[in-house]
Amino acid sequence: MEFENVLKKNLAALILVVMSAQAFSSEKTDATWEQLLAANKLPAVDQSYCYTDEHGKMFGENLDIRVRLASVSKLLTSLWAVEKLGINYKYRTKLFIKGSNLHIQGSLDPFLGNEKMFFLLSQLNDLGYSKFDTITFDKIIQINPSVAVHSDQYPLITRASNARNLKMYFNTNSWSPDLKAEYTRIASLAPKGKFRPVIHFEIGNAQYVDTNPYENNHEAKILTLSSPVLYKYLKEINVQSNNYAAHTIFLQLGGAVEFEKFISDRYGKTSNSIHFYTGSGLPSVVDGIRRDNYATCATTIELIAALKESTERQGKKLEDLVAVPGSDAGTFSNRIFPADYKNAFVAKTGTLMHTSTLAGAMSTQKGFSFYGIFNQSTDIEGSKIVQNGMVKSVMTEMDGPLAFNYVVDPFHPYNGDNVKNLEFFNPSTPSEFTTIEENLY
Predict the structure, then answer these.
(1) Mean pLDDT across the chain
(2) For the chain, what percentages of helix, strand and coil (3-state, to nearest 5) are there?
(3) Are residues 260 and 376 in the same domain?
(4) What is the pLDDT of residue 15?
């Protein structure tokens, strides 16, 4: 049975009950929780876990205390994105070419980095372009060559940095050996014919402008560089825990103020139970004080339930957006679960200096379950032991796993078997992801 069918007959009732956040007692899982905390010397007062049974009843301990979410935040950023933009939304960067000049109209594409810029150059060469006197760009282009690094510190992207990067990419005769090697690496991994073996380009200057100089010029040629659909971006963000891309989407949607309004207007949640400072889960510094995203366990799994409902309403499944342990790699590659758990749950991890978190959803013999486990401790390894143990405890309480049909989308062969000398990718965490799909059109 497919993952989407596990909940179908009870979906409306489940969401309704989950949203009520009524907590019940489960003697077996509570006992396991207490034993795991004691064995790993984690103070019970700072820890929280919760899950729903097949009827949507919520069980757990400390469901209503505020806990740091860390990268579990990305699931709720994903919820905001699919509700506001739509699951099949595409970022479309527009190119206006008039004579020997190019204007780039940005789209806030969160993956505008090496692969996409190399692809753009290759495509322009294919169309016969190899030189521009001037490139102008607007305020919503955001170029980050290191987008695949998942930077912990959000980079400062300015008009000056965008101009520097455009000059770097478009003046191929000045490429460093490392940049040449990176182009060769990316081109060799792409499907045949996607990239030219060698590209040649030259520009004079790159500069910011307030308005598009060719907006209403009928002589200008307009091309579009399109992204893959949004859910593929979100899948990569959640599997690899890409901090930069997650926070870029968060900022695109309006940042902390608009997120608070969205979560209040749509789901009736206030800062009593949830507040975000970043879309990634990394801390922010406000008035010189560190601030972390927080929520209660109950609120978190209610919103994960909402993410599943939104995803299915738009024709996709939760596993299209969230990592599937046993099949997807990423942040789960070093966690070991029983073999029959493969393709039976989705999960997002989170780790900070004093926080380790895990949340997601399970397909079980009894039905569907949402779960969250939040450990506030500097003992990250001990916290992960607790989380792994609680996943098994909840799965056992629900009579074991019921696998759903899932195959990793193999639309691009970026994986650890054929990638050598990686600079931007960790071969222990293979990825099928690409930032490109359609040719310039």
Answers:
(1) 88
(2) 40, 20, 40
(3) yes
(4) 45
